[in-house]
From TrEMBL:
This is histidine kinase. Residues 262-472 form the Histidine kinase domain. PANTHER family: HISTIDINE KINASE, SENSOR HISTIDINE KINASE YKOH. One of its GO terms (molecular function) is phosphorelay sensor kinase activity. It comes from the Bacteria. Residues 204-255 form the HAMP domain. It catalyses: ATP + protein L-histidine = ADP + protein N-phospho-L-histidine. Gene3D superfamilies: 1.10.287.130, 6.10.340.10, Histidine kinase-like ATPase, C-terminal domain, PAS domain. The chain crosses the membrane at residues 6-27, 184-206.
Length: 472
């Protein structure tokens, strides 16, 4: 099934479920909302009638004056009102009054005079000083015959002497409920249709964009020269740029250039060590010290030869699924080798080196790559550490991993540069010369660490900068 159709089907499912739940929730709230509004109106009406009827009720003249005729005339009125498009041709309120015992003394319908209503909640609760309301069906089996009743107390000097109840059948509200529900359904259906149309257009556009990118990738695989598709921002533009970059690398341009820079950069370290040892040999020194520096020159020369051979094959590193060697590499001994190679620079800058790594602590990996990575870290630290500064090597086992840390005393790295330190060809000016390196050292270290299944973090700490390598 094409991706566009799958996206559209998921979109349809999402819109359908969302529309159903939203409409269902709103529909369920329409009827209670209308009834709540009506009940609030009944409360006001009942309390108004309680004040109007209080004096006549207190005097016992409700049934002897004009109130029965007024309520009867009220029940016969024809408002002929048009309420938001719905006609209203008769009044629907029923008003009755009960005394302190719950006996009906006045009824606008004329059917309950003299009856005992003291058990109905609208009367019972109101006589007790509480809010009295009830909803009762005229026909028990028919929910549409439900009638709302709201009572209000008639008071005499704070004492409740009677109750006025205003009743309204829910059937009089049904037309408004039905109209609201019909409108909600119509609007909801319209929104769902518009949403589906939008989803269809979006799916078609996405499918068309992916088809263009697929055709471009197929043309590249066949060796044909075609123009990369252009998109206006977003992930599709990034994907097209990534495919174009992949094409360039497969053609061998950027790929070869990158490793030429890497090779040049990596040759700097052993050449610097040989040059430093050669300069020191020009001065008089004990024979044992001379032998040590001669040995350094010999080992660094061998290292250069090995480095050239390895870096020529390093182009395959990123394509490898794993390491060529997996052996236990003593970390302390590896650090000693790296320090020995840079002893001339360390002595020239009069640095204090602190190494607190246990002799039996080992990591699993390729010794050559690990040595090159640590050598790059040390060279980078030496570039930024001032004369008389401190280098500190430490490592400890944390569960299944070893956390190696290299601290060098220096100025803090600017915040804007922290996220770019391992970016290829990005470099900061060296404090001594003001020049920048090729910006491949830390990038190379990160690649080696990732190949070993580890992580690399560089950050500012108190007094300097710390690099942490998390290795197996």
């Amino acid at each position: 099934m094409p991706l566009g159709i799958r996206i559209f089907l998921v979109y349809v499912l999402f819109i359908g479920l969302t529309g159903y739940f939203v409409l269902n929730t709103v529909m369920q709230e329409v009827r209670p909302g209308v009834r709540q509004s009506t009940e609030e109106t009944l409360v006001d009406t009942a309390n108004l009638m309680a004040e109007i009827l209080r004096d006549d009720f207190k005097a016992g003249t409700l049934s002897q004056n004009r109130w029965p005729q007024l309520l009867k005339a009220y029940g016969e009125r024809e408002p002929k009102a048009n309420i938001w498009g719905l006609p209203k041709n008769q009044v629907s309120h029923r008003i009755y009054v009960t005394d302190a015992k719950g006996i009906v003394v006045l009824d606008s319908s004329g059917v309950a005079l003299g009856q005992d209503y003291s058990r109905w909640n609208d009367v019972y609760l109101t006589l007790r000083g509480e809010y009295g309301a009830r909803s009762t069906r005229s026909i028990a089996e028919d929910a549409t015959t439900s009638v709302m009743h709201v009572g209000a107390p008639i008071r005499d000097n704070g004492k409740i002497i009677g109750v006025v109840t205003v009743a309204k059948p829910n059937s009089s509200l049904q037309p408004y409920v039905d109209r609201t529900e019909r409108r909600l359904i119509a609007y909801g259906a319209g929104m769902i249709v518009l949403g589906l149309l939008f989803g269809g257009v979006l799916s078609w556009w996405l499918s068309a964009a992916l088809r263009r990118l697929t055709a471009y990738a197929q043309a590249v695989s066949e060796g044909r020269r075609v123009e990369v598709p252009h998109y206006r921002g977003g992930e599709l533009e990034q994907l097209a740029s990534a495919v174009e970059q992949m094409r360039t690398q497969l053609e061998g341009k950027a790929y070869v250039e990158r490793y030429v820079h890497t090779l040049t950069h990596e040759l700097k370290s052993p050449l610097a060590a040989i040059r430093g040892a050669a300069e020191l040999l020009q001065d008089e020194m004990p024979l044992a010290q001379q032998q040590r520096f001669v040995s350094n020159i010999e080992s660094e020369s061998a290292r250069m030869q090995q480095l050239i051979e390895r870096l020529l094959n390093l182009a395959l590193v990123e394509q490898r699924q794993g390491l060529e060697q997996r052996v236990a590499v003593p970390l302390a001994a590896l650090i000693e080798q790296v320090l020995e190679a840079q002893m001339a620079r360390i002595a020239g800058k009069q640095l204090r080196v602190e190494q607190t790594i246990a002799p039996d602590l080992s990591v699993i990996g390729e010794p050559f790559l690990l040595r090159q990575a640590l050598g790059n870290l040390l060279e980078n630290a030496l570039d930024f550490t001032p004369v008389g500064g401190v280098l500190r090597f430490s490592a400890e086992r944390a569960g299944a991993h070893v956390e190696f840390k290299l601290f060098n005393q220096t100025e803090a790295i600017p915040d804007y540069a922290l996220p770019r330190l391992t970016e290829r060809f990005y470099s900061l000016p060296r404090p001594d010369s003001g020049r920048k390196s090729t910006g491949l050292g830390l990038n190379f270290v990160e690649e080696v660490v990732k190949l070993h299944g580890g992580q690399m973090n560089v950050g500012n700490v108190a007094g300097g900068v710390e690099v942490m390598l998390r290795l197996v």
